[in-house]
Design goal:
There is one protein chain. By secondary structure, this protein is an alpha/beta fold. 73% of the residues lie in helices and 7% in strands. It is built from 18 helices and twelve strands. A five-stranded parallel sheet has the order 6-10-11-3-12, with helices on both faces. The chain has a four-stranded antiparallel sheet with strand order 2-1-4-5, covered by helices on one side. It has a three-stranded antiparallel sheet with strand order 7-8-9. Helix 5 packs across helix 13 (599-618), helix 6 runs antiparallel to helix 10 and helix 15 packs across helix 17. The radius of gyration is 53 Å and the shape is flat. It starts with a strand and ends with a strand.
C-alpha cells in the first residue's frame, strides 16, 4: 500500500489540510510543536482505527473532526482500521519516544513463525511427519476392518439377544399393566356415579337461589316504574343542557383569570422597559439607541489605549525571554550528549577494570609456573600478561581522564543553565513589579480587567447588566428586543381573550334559557329533581339487565342438569377401556424369536486380534523417527530468533563500533548479557534503543512481506553526524522497496527537498 494524498478536515491544529505524497522517501520538516506528531497520529488512526489519545486532537474551535487517506488501493476513511494496530506499530510506525517493540509480541511472533512454516525445508519436514507408511498401515487397517466386522457381528448377536430379552420383559410388563388398567376402569366407573349425584344436587341448589333473586328483581321493577314522571329522552336532553351550561360557566371563570394574568404580565413588561430607560437617563428608545452607540465608541477608545499598552510591554519583555529559552534548549541538548558520552566512558572503564584483573592474574599464574618448572614459554607468557595489564591500565587512566573532563564540562554547562534561569526570573520579576503578574500570557487578563474597571467608572449603570461593558450593552439590546416582542404578543393575546369572553358570555345566556325550557318539558321543578329522575332511570335499566341475566342463567342450569342426567360415561373411562383393549391386542400379537450362541465368530475374532498385535509390534518404532523429524522442524520454525540476534549485533557494531551479543526470545523480546541477561530497555541508552527499534521493525516487515508505509515521527534527533550518515543510507535503502514518511525537526536529514515544511 502507498499513500497518495492525506486530507484532514479537522484534527488537532490542522483544518482543511491536504498533502500529496510520492513513492520512496517523503521528508516532512518542521520545528517543535509544528504538528509533526499530529500528522503522524492522523495517518496511524486512519489505517488502524486505534489511538488512545484521540480526543486530545478534537479541535475545540471547530466542529470538523476527521479526514481520509487516498492510497493506490482506494480511499481509507478516518478511523476505518484497515490494518491490525499491533502489526502496524510493530512494522510501520516509529514514534518520537522509545516504544515497547523491543519487549516482544505474542501475535507478531506467531505471524513470523507462520511465515517460516511456508518455506520449502519446513514443508519437506512436514511432509515426512505426515508420511503414513502405507504398506504396514494398509495391513493394519485391513486387520482392524476384519476385527471390526467380527465384533459387529457379535454385537448384532448381542443386540438380537437384547431384543429378545426386551420382548420377554415387555410381555411381562403388558400383563401387569393390563391388570392395573382393569382396576382403574372399575374405580373410575364408581367415581363417575358419585360425581353425577353431587353435580345434580349442586344444580338444584343454584336453581332455587336464582328463582328467589328473580322474584326480588321483578318486585323492585314494579316499584321504580311507578316513580318515573317523564320520558327518558326528555330527561337526558335536559341533563345534557345542564352539563353544557356548567362547562360554559367554568370556561368563563378560566378566561377571566387568564385575562387578569395577561394584564399583570403586560404591566410588568412595561415597567421593566421604563426601568431600562431610567437607568440610561433616556426618554425614548431612539434616544437609548444613540446613548448605546456613544458608549460603544468609548469602549473602543479605551480598548485601543490598553491594547497599545499591552503591545509595548510584550515587545519589551518577550524578545529577552525567547532568547533565554533558545539558549536553555541548546544547553539541554549539549547536556544530553555529554550524558551519553559519560555513560559510554563509564562502561569502557568497567571493561578495562576486568581486563587489568585478567592480565594480572594470568601474569601471576605464569610466574608461579616459572618457579615450579623453569620453562621459557612461561617467561614469555608472564611478560605478555604484564604488558597486557600495563596497556589496560594506561587505557583505563586515559578513559578516566576523559570522564573527568566530561564531568567538569557538565558542571560548567549546568552553571550556565542556572545563570540563564536566574536571568529569566529577573525578567519575570520586573514584569510582576510593573504589572503585578508573573507571566506575559496573564498580562492580557490584567489589562482587560483595568479596561472594564475604567468603563464602569464612566458608565456605572452598565454593571447592572454584565461584568463586561461590551457584553452588558448586548444584554441591554437583547432585553429591549425581548420586551418589545413580549409586549406586542401580550396585547394581541389580551384582545383575543376578551373577545372569547364576550362570545362565551352571550352563548351561555342562550343555553341557560334552553335549559329552563327543557326542565319545563320534562315536568321537573329543579336540577335536584332532574338528577333524582335520571338515577331512577339508571336503576330501572340495571334491574332489567339483571332480570335478563338471571333468566339466562336459569336456562343454562336446566340444560346442564339435563346433560348430567343423560351422562353414562366420560373421557377417562373411554380412554381406560381403549387402553385395556389395546393391551390385549398387543399381547396376542407379541412373538418371541429363537436365539443361537456365536462360538465360531468369537474364535475367529481371537485369531485376528493376535495377528493385529504382531503387526503393531513391527511398526512401533515409526513414532520415534517422526519425533526426531518433529524436533528438527520446531528448531527450524524458531530459527528466526537466531537470524534476528545476528542482525541486531551487526547493526550495533555498524552504528556504535562495539561488539554486543543480543538474545532474542521466542516472543521477539530483545535482551543482552551485561554480565547477566537483562532487557535492552534497561541497559542501552535512548539513541541505541531507537536504532535497534528501527531495524527490528525493518526485519519483521521483510519477513512478513509488509507493504505498508513506514511512518517515522521525529525519532532520530539525538544521533551524532556519523550515525545520521548511516541512518540516511538505511532510509534510502528502505525507500527502494516501500514508501517512507519521515517527519523530522533535524536539518541534517534535509538531504533532499521535503514534500512539506511545517
Amino acid at each position: 500500500m502507498k499513500i497518495r494524498q492525506v486530507y484532514i478536515e479537522g484534527f488537532g491544529k490542522f483544518e482543511d489540510f491536504s498533502l500529496n505524497l510520492k513513492d520512496g522517501l517523503n521528508i516532512i520538516f518542521g520545528g517543535n510543536a509544528a504538528g509533526k506528531t499530529t500528522l503522524a497520529n492522523f495517518i496511524r488512526y486512519c489505517l488502524t482505527g486505534n489511538l488512545a489519545e484521540l480526543e486530545d486532537y478534537r479541535p475545540w474551535y471547530s466542529k470538523k473532526f476527521g479526514g481520509r487517506l487516498e492510497t493506490d488501493e482506494g480511499t481509507v476513511h478516518f478511523g476505518s482500521g484497515v490494518v491490525d494496530p499491533e502489526v502496524f506499530l510493530f512494522t510501520s510506525f516509529l514514534p518520537e519516544h522509545v516504544d515497547d517493540t523491543l519487549e516482544g509480541s505474542q501475535k507478531i511472533s506467531s505471524l513470523v513463525s507462520e511465515s517460516y512454516k511456508r518455506l520449502p525445508p519446513a514443508r519437506e519436514m512436514e511432509r515426512v511427519m505426515n508420511e503414513d507408511f502405507s504398506s504396514l498401515m494398509e495391513k493394519e487397517k485391513l486387520l482392524r476392518n476384519e476385527i471390526a466386522n467380527l465384533e459387529m457381528k457379535i454385537d448384532e448377536w448381542k443386540e438380537k439377544r437384547k431384543k429378545v430379552l426386551l420382548l420377554m420383559k415387555k410381555k411381562k410388563n403388558l400383563e401387569e399393566e393390563l391388570l392395573k388398567n382393569k382396576g382403574l376402569l372399575d374405580e373410575e366407573r364408581r367415581r363417575l356415579e358419585e360425581e353425577k349425584k353431587r353435580k345434580l344436587q349442586s344444580i338444584d341448589s343454584r336453581l332455587e337461589e336464582i328463582k328467589k333473586k328473580l322474584l326480588r328483581v321483578e318486585a323492585e321493577l314494579k316499584e321504580f316504574e311507578s316513580q318515573i314522571v317523564s320520558s327518558k329522552n326528555d330527561l337526558e336532553e335536559a341533563y345534557e343542557l345542564f352539563q353544557k351550561v356548567d362547562y360554559l360557566k367554568e370556561r368563563q371563570n378560566q378566561l377571566e383569570m387568564e385575562i387578569k394574568e395577561l394584564e399583570k404580565r403586560y404591566d410588568e413588561t412595561r415597567e421593566k422597559m421604563e426601568d431600562i430607560l431610567k437607568d440610561f437617563s433616556c426618554r425614548s428608545f431612539e434616544e437609548l439607541k444613540l446613548r448605546m452607540e456613544n458608549l460603544r465608541l468609548q469602549i473602543d477608545l479605551v480598548e485601543n489605549e490598553h491594547r497599545a499598552k499591552i503591545n509595548e510591554i510584550s515587545n519589551r519583555l518577550k524578545r529577552p525571554l525567547e532568547e533565554i529559552e533558545r539558549q536553555v534548549n541548546t544547553i539541554n541538548e549539549r547536556l544530553e550528549k555529554i550524558g551519553d558520552r559519560m555513560k559510554r566512558a563509564d562502561r569502557t572503564l568497567s571493561v578495562f577494570k576486568v581486563l587489568v584483573s585478567v592480565f594480572l592474574t594470568f601474569s601471576v599464574v605464569s610466574a608461579v609456573f616459572i618457579f615450579l618448572a623453569s620453562k621459557n614459554p612461561f617467561i614469555y607468557l608472564t611478560f605478555a600478561g604484564a604488558g597486557g595489564a600495563l596497556i589496560s591500565i594506561w587505557n583505563y587512566f586515559r578513559v578516566k581522564e576523559e570522564l573527568q573532563n566530561l564531568d567538569r564540562e557538565f558542571v560548567t554547562i549546568s552553571s550556565q543553565k542556572r545563570e540563564l534561569m536566574e536571568e529569566k526570573s529577573q525578567v519575570l520579576k520586573r514584569l510582576k513589579e510593573a504589572m503585578g503578574v508573573e507571566d506575559i500570557d496573564k498580562l492580557e487578563d490584567v489589562l482587560k480587567k483595568q479596561m472594564n474597571s475604567k468603563m464602569f467608572e464612566i458608565a456605572p449603570f452598565l454593571a447592572k447588566y454584565g461584568s463586561d461593558p461590551r457584553k452588558a450593552l448586548e444584554n441591554v439590546e437583547n432585553q429591549i428586543r425581548e420586551f418589545l416582542m413580549m409586549k406586542d404578543s401580550l396585547a394581541s393575546s389580551l384582545a383575543e381573550k376578551r373577545k372569547n369572553l364576550e362570545e362565551i358570555t352571550g352563548y351561555m345566556r342562550e343555553q341557560e334559557e334552553a335549559f329552563r325550557k327543557a326542565l319545563d318539558k320534562a315536568g321537573v321543578e329543579s336540577v335536584e329533581v332532574l338528577l333524582k329522575q335520571l338515577e331512577l332511570k339508571e336503576k330501572l335499566l340495571r334491574l332489567e339487565r339483571e332480570k335478563k341475566d338471571l333468566q339466562n342463567a336459569m336456562k343454562k342450569l336446566l340444560e346442564e342438569k339435563e346433560n348430567v342426567e343423560s351422562m353414562k360415561s366420560n373421557q377417562r373411562i373411554e380412554e381406560l377401556e381403549e387402553r385395556v383393549n389395546s393391551i390385549g391386542r398387543e399381547l396376542e400379537a407379541l412373538e418371541i424369536p429363537p436365539l443361537e450362541e456365536p462360538y465360531g465368530l468369537m474364535e475367529q475374532l481371537t485369531k485376528k486380534q493376535l495377528e493385529l498385535a504382531l503387526t503393531e509390534k513391527i511398526i512401533e518404532n515409526i513414532p520415534a523417527f517422526k519425533d526426531r523429524v518433529k524436533r528438527k522442524y520446531s528448531e527450524f520454525v524458531m530459527g528466526h530468533t537466531k537470524e534476528f540476534s545476528k542482525e541486531l549485533s551487526r547493526v550495533y557494531r555498524e552504528f556504535f563500533g562495539e561488539m554486543m551479543v543480543f538474545n532474542v526470545s521466542s516472543q521477539l523480546a530483545v535482551a543482552v548479557n551485561v554480565p547477566q541477561e537483562k532487557s535492552v530497555m534497561r541497559v542501552l541508552n535512548t539513541s541505541a534503543l531507537k536504532i535497534l527499534t528501527f531495524h527490528v521493525k525493518d526485519f519483521v516487515s521483510r519477513v512478513l512481506e509488509i507493504d505498508l508505509p513506514l511512518v517515522i515521527d521525529n525519532t532520530f534527533v539525538n544521533l551524532d553526524d556519523s550515525k545520521i550518515d548511516l541512518l540516511w543510507s538505511k532510509l534510502k535503502e528502505t525507500a527502494q522497496t516501500r514508501q517512507v514518511i519521515l517527519l523530522t525537526s533535524d536539518r541534517r536529514l534535509l538531504r533532499e527537498e521535503p514534500v512539506l515544511r511545517l
